[in-house]
Amino acid sequence: MRTEKKAPLKVAMLGHKTVPAMDSSRGGIEVVVEELAPRLVEMGCEVTCYNRTGCDNGGLTEYKGVKLIPVPTFKRKGLAAMTSSFFATVKATFGHYDVIHFHAEGPCFWMWIPHLFGKRCVCTIHGLDFARAKWKSGLGSKYIKVGEKMAVKHASEIIVLSKGVQEYFWKTFKRKTVFIPNGVSRPQIRDVKEITERFGLTKDSYILFLGRIVPEKGLRYLVEAYKGLNTDKKLVIAGGSSDTDEFTAELKGMAGENVVFTGFVAGRTREELYSNAYVYVLPSDLEGIPLSLLEAMSYGNCCVVSNISECAEVVEDKAVVFKKSNVGDLREKLQMLCDDDMAVQEYKRSATEFICSKYSWDDVAKKTVELYMSQENKYKRGQKVNGQF
Known about the structure:
This protein is α/β, with parallel strands linked by helices. The chain is built from 14 helices and 14 strands. The strands form two sheets. Strands 3-4-2-1-5-6-7-8 form an eight-stranded mixed beta sheet, with helices on both faces. A six-stranded parallel beta sheet has the order 11-10-9-12-13-14, with helices on both faces. α10 links the parallel β12 (about 280) and β13 (about 305). The longest helix is centred in the C-terminal third of the chain and has 20 residues, at about 360-380. The protein starts with 9 loop residues before the first strand and ends in a 9-residue tail after the last helix.
């Protein structure tokens, strides 16, 4: 008797900018989708990612087995995310998928469309986007808040990346969520070459921040704290703006000659910056789960982070923690590390093994597929999922 082969699970992903992202459009969501989608393919899923037009992905139509489909995008500020998510949602709704996986709160604004046609939707909340500086007012804020409510109402499952966000959804909506934090890969350590040629940096000669140049990352505090340090180490701020050119200009106006702004970095330059920093700093007021922190620790960095739960949960006792928004406390912690190389080396010795054993992309993929399958089985049995069929 011949056993019929089971059809692969068909998954659509949307809400990111593009995969793979080869320019400053590469943010945390893009990293997650870029790491997760190919692993789902390896596990037997058929995955399609809906990319924004106008973002550089090298002109690819497939990436590591993942099908890439561009969708129309209105490039006016504030409309790119909204319009690309709308067109991606419509295409996915009529694309014969088993699961439509939304990334971030805003794109979930359109989740009512696939729900109307009986499609199963999962969403990953990468952070409370309505609290970010650029979305705190106007149409963008309303769009995100409605998106959040659509996810609560229509998603078969909501994935969160931190316990703090999980608590928020329960307290605010009495909605259960699934905690699946991001992963990290063990990297290749790079000797200095490009960063010396481009920025004059040598090993252990600089304090590093690497991430998006946005107010909620706490960069004002970092620049102010650095200005009062007694050290010959430079401060390197690496990353591109995210509709925040005015803020970037403000930071440059505050900074002195020993503060290096690299702009967006990728490839070997990015790897060298992580590999050769004396200390990595993430002074954020707001995070989902900070991928840059996971990456920094995977490179064996001594890290200094604000005491928000999303950072403190990640580092446990393997990094230095300061009081959020407190310039004096941040300066004191940085000065202590500048004066105590032995303490820095001790943090560096334990960082890589700790973070790579705690956070794994393979585990993320496995748990995500298990979530998809559990929902598929519930739908087949006609059971309600979180109040929805």
